[in-house]
Amino acid sequence: MSKIITLVCLFAAFATQAQDKKIEKQTVEASCGQCKLGMKDKKGCDLAVRIDNKTYFVEGAKMEQFGDAHGHDGMCTTIRKAEVSGTIQGDKFVATSFKVLPVEGHNHDAHDGHKH
Length: 116
Known about the structure:
The chain is of the alpha+beta class. It has one helix spanning 2-19, and strands at 20-32, 47-51, 54-59, 80-89, 92-100.
């Protein structure tokens, strides 16, 4: 009987660890889950990330924090790179840090005669 209890405890510990994966300063793809990452679980537009070829909706950050989602480089228009930290908990990514990186090849600033 004690062997069975030990096996159950080991399995439970493994299952819990497998569900929660800690991410530290990893560069990931970030975008609208519905518009750009093909997620169908929710309606509307929600921030999501792709980590290790799997997509997760994000808690702890919103698309609105990163400018116009429908602008030329917005989250509903393009897939951006982001440096993130947090935890994968089941089917969501709970962010403790979320920094959208500059668009590659974007070598001008706000003072070069046009608006962003």
